[in-house]
Design a protein that fits this description.
The chain has one helix and nine strands; from the N terminus they run H-E-E-E-E-E-E-E-E-E. By secondary structure, the protein is α+β, with helices and mostly antiparallel strands. A hairpin with a 3-residue loop joins strand 1 and strand 2.
Length: 208
């Protein structure tokens, strides 16, 4: 049975192909006959609408003046910074120390004068609040005679040192506040001078 089917299979294919070809030929013949019998329809060209150019969206409408684009806002630049002017530092004046009034002072007097000598005095006064020692320094001019003697009136005697024409007396005891002592000296006179060239008490010049 199978063998018979195998033998018939090629013929079946041929029959099917012949049938399909016959069918196509018949359909083609029918269509040709229909075309020959029907009215001829004239195909007219379809009129085209006139071309109207469309302006681009960015174009300016006719009759409206174009506006210039607004200029960008100006940014005001800050003014240049000025360096602060330097103010010269005030010149400090040197501090003046207040003058301290001496509390122990001296005053020179001529007590007596002779043909060949004279007697001078230095009155030492203490205006302070406490007792204070004192030092009297006298320098005599050149040509003055020698010192004959010196003494302190009604008080312990002072210590004397001599250096050339300069004589220095240092108190034996302090002078009390509000009190005064008198230092006297007897000088041989060879000229007309009756006073020392310089006089100082505790470094302050004597009054005359």
């Amino acid at each position: 049975m199978r063998r018979q089917l195998r033998d018939l299979l090629p013929w079946l294919v041929i029959f099917a192909a012949v049938g399909a070809l016959s069918t196509l030929l018949a359909i083609t013949a029918v269509q040709q006959m229909a075309w020959k019998r029907g009215p001829v329809i004239e195909v007219l060209p379809i009129p085209l609408a006139p071309f109207i150019p469309i302006p681009p969206p960015s174009a300016t409408p006719t009759g409206t003046p174009a506006r210039a684009p607004a200029p960008p806002p100006r940014t005001s630049s800050p003014p240049p910074s000025r360096s602060p002017s330097r103010v010269p530092a005030p010149t400090q004046k040197p501090t003046m120390k207040p003058t301290v009034k001496p509390t122990v002072t001296g005053e020179y007097h001529l007590v007596d004068a002779y043909d060949d000598a004279y007697i001078g005095e230095v009155l030492v006064s203490n205006a302070g609040a406490g007792a204070s020692g004192w030092t009297v320094v006298l320098t005599f001019p050149a040509g003055t005679g020698a010192l004959r003697t010196s003494w302190v009136e009604s008080a312990p005697q002072a210590n004397l040192t001599v250096s050339g024409e300069t004589y220095t007396w240092r108190s034996g005891v302090p002078v009390e506040p509000g009190a005064a002592v008198s230092l006297r000296f007897h000088i041989a006179r060879e000229g007309a001078s009756t006073r020392p060239r310089t006089c100082a008490v505790n470094g302050t010049a004597c009054a005359h």
